[in-house]
Amino acid sequence: MPRQSVKRGIWLLLVALVLFIGVPWYWPSDSALDGWLVPNWVWVSLAASWLFAGLVVWGALGAWPDEDRD
Amino acid sequence: MQGLPLASWSLGFVAVYLTSVLAVGWFARSRRRDDSLSDYYLGGRSMGLGVLMLTLFATQYSGNALFGFTGQAYRAGFTWLSILHSMIAVVAGYLLFAPQLYRLSREKQFVTPSDYIAFRFPSRALGALVVVCLMVVLVNYVLAQLKVMGHVVQGLSGGQVDGVWGVVLLAVIMLVYSTLGGLRSVAWTDAIQGAMMLTGFILIAVIVHRDLGGWLTAFSELREVAPGKLQPPSGRGAVTWFSTVILIGVGASVYPQAIQRIYAAGSADILKKSLAGMAVLPLFAVVVVLALGFVAIARYPGLEGSAADQVMVLILRDVLATGWLGQIVVTLLLGAILAALMSTADSALLSLSAIFAKDVYRPYLRPGAGDRECARAGQWLVWSVLAVLIWITTVEDLTLYRLFVLKFEILLQVAPAFYLGVNFPSLQAKPILMGLLAGLVTAIAGWSLGWMPLGLHPGTVGLVVNLAVVAAGHWVFPLARK
Lengths: 70, 482
Prior knowledge:
The structure holds two protein chains of two kinds. Chain A is mostly helical.
């Protein structure tokens, strides 16, 4: 598989992961994880947006999508 | 609402700014190389890094960003953080098709987004449908900007000046400089406007911290006044969040005016560096605008519906009351607000002009017409459309956010033609056309009925239907591949 395709795949997976983390899917419940996430959800989402922007910069400058570079 | 007691020099500054953009338009005209559509609508395909990044920024961050985003942050609270992810997603969306599209545009000399569609999918029906969708979206987009212009003039003058006269003045100035120099003058004025907007965002952040009690105090007050607006969204709300990211991220990446800027980039390297810069800007620009909306929840309670879109004007009034420094800051911000409104509207108008000239006038109305005649026809259309839209702004009463969403419902259905077109060479026109039709019917019907199944926007549901039809047409029914 061309190196560029592998990079594209990794990039897309990471973007999907960060997008998923950025969405506050959680809601108050008895679980310890939700107990921490709910009051801190804004910070989690903001951190995810920073990661997302970083991924896009990496994508623009290196990983994606110019197959001519292979 | 009371007007802003602006000093006469503040109004003088605005006058100088408006005169300067006219001067830029005149200068851009003197730099035109020929009468070709490519030179007029794409600035000779020679845009440098700074201008490209600032014009993309100024085009994406419009009156919606300053007034609609702030108003929605006020109404929805922190769940509107989804817009931050959405604006970054727009750039991620570009990466999935823009570099390949750029290469093709150089090779085949595309001028409008529909040129690519015509090249990639030689179907007259698909081409015509895409042109109609893009023109509807652009008209909608300009209408939203005009409505904000009316709000701004009316809000800033405390209702003493009829918003429509402010709209007429700004519209005429936009038309003059964009008619004079085409994309060259629009992009140059965008660069000035983008720089003013960035300065404006910095000043807002500083002034709120310095003179309006500070960000942390404002958030503490918010916790007491409206604790519900600090809560994460419900399960359905989380789905809406995700849907918003898809709706705006994918939809805005195929703005016709943005695609034309992709064509206009001086090189592939310049394009990629501009996109990298665009990915970082929301972390500052969007966060500041949202924070203003959040601060306003505690500071100006009780605003509902479209009244919340006036939050920015209320903040400016308070900043003005802080003294001479406030006067300077508000003057600069006034320039930035006008810049935001004009930079988005002028780009949409120019794109509308290009699509009409290249994709409607020449193929359907005057086959064989020269470039100069086509460009002139596009200019006439824009002047006429603008006159009608100004009239509509006086009778319509939709909140800004609703206007903002409607265009994405349509754009989202056009996106697969670009995204899939550049990435799947074996895909044919028929599945794309059927998918587009199915998506449009679903999205527009859902939007009209106010339908949001599971919290998904009608446009997102339309996209799912659209992609399912494309996949079925491509893989399940082999006849479609012929």
